[in-house]
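Students often ask why inverse folding is considered easier than folding. One informal answer: many sequences map to the same fold, so there is more than one right answer. In these notes we will look at a single instance of the problem. The structure comes first.
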């Protein structure tokens, strides 16, 4: 008889983090219930005066510039080293990429009528910077697919929000980009855009989209990320997001910018106390943002933190789960999505 796959550990609803666990987040409100028709996140958003279609798309009133890019088809998925995978251009969802952890990836379905009327975790495809001296480690596939699917599962579990069980992989120049308000770019220390991609992404973010950048470390990787985003927003600058910002006080009350290490460092930190990757320039966590003229966040960069490992590797270590996934990575992830859907 073959052994059963490991399952994700139980994650307590928002009220569960112990009140003595400062500076980790405490719950702001009553515990969230599992999804039900009466308490779905979509119903709550409608009650707030936000149409359900806002959850799955942004108005595309402006003509979208679509680049005709000739892309060489890769033969199939496979490991490339440095946490990267080789994913064919024809692969459109995270669900279509084989899991690389020993823990069973959660599977769920939405009720009839909610198949497309749901939030979708959307990962941005990009080509790495051609300058090896400038780019960092990793690439757009770092932590794919488990981080995407695990966070999506936890969202529908903790927020009573209908969430696409498959996720989406997309390029900035894809004509369907406007259907996906939330974008995630992994390892932006290697981020690189063409002028056409930068223009398409700028229009998307200006029309209500949001881009999360995570899993990069040190000054060199920050410099590459900042340079790539300067092509998107040449007239705007990153600023350090203060903890008083509403993003930190949506579902969870987050009181500190806590570092999430990769799984190896995280497990070892129980003895070593070291949670940073690299040298002294990777010790301090930064949450840097770009906002529009009204103050709405368009971009958030989580620098010197491996937030997506907190989602991807949650089932591989009890210590890592309780200290980094449950207390830090998921509360911030949930608050981020809540902010995107309500702003």
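Output (designed amino acids):
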């Amino acid at each position: 008889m073959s052994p059963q796959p490991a399952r994700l550990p139980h994650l307590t609803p928002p009220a569960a983090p112990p009140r003595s666990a400062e500076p980790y987040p405490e719950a702001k409100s009553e515990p969230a219930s599992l999804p039900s028709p009466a308490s779905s996140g979509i119903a709550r958003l409608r009650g707030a005066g936000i149409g359900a279609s806002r959850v799955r798309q942004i108005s595309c009133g402006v003509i979208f510039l679509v680049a005709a890019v000739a892309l060489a088809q890769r033969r199939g998925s496979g490991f490339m080293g440095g946490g990267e995978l080789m994913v064919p251009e024809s692969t459109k969802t995270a669900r279509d990429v084989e899991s690389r952890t020993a823990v069973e990836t959660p599977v769920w379905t939405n009720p009839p009528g909610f198949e497309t009327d749901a939030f979708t975790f959307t990962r941005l495809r990009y080509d790495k910077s051609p300058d090896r001296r400038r780019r960092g480690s990793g690439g757009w596939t770092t932590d794919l697919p488990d981080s995407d699917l695990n966070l999506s599962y936890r969202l529908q579990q903790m927020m009573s929000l209908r969430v696409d069980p498959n996720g989406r992989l997309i390029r900035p120049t894809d004509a369907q980009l406007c259907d996906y308000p939330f974008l995630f770019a992994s390892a932006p220390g290697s981020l690189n855009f063409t002028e056409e991609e930068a223009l398409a992404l700028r229009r998307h973010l200006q029309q209500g989209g949001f881009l999360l950048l995570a899993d990069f470390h040190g000054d060199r990787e920050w410099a590459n990320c900042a340079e790539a985003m300067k092509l998107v927003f040449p007239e705007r600058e990153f600023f350090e997001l203060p903890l008083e910002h509403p993003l930190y006080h949506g579902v969870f009350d987050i009181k500190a910018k806590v570092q999430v290490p990769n799984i190896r460092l995280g497990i070892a930190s129980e003895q070593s106390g070291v949670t940073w990757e690299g040298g002294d320039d990777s010790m301090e966590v930064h949450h840097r943002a770009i906002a529009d003229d009204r103050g709405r966040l368009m971009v958030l960069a989580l620098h010197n933190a491996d937030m997506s490992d907190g989602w991807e590797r949650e089932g591989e270590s009890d210590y890592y789960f309780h200290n980094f996934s449950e207390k830090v990575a998921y509360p911030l992830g949930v608050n981020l999505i809540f902010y995107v859907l309500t702003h």
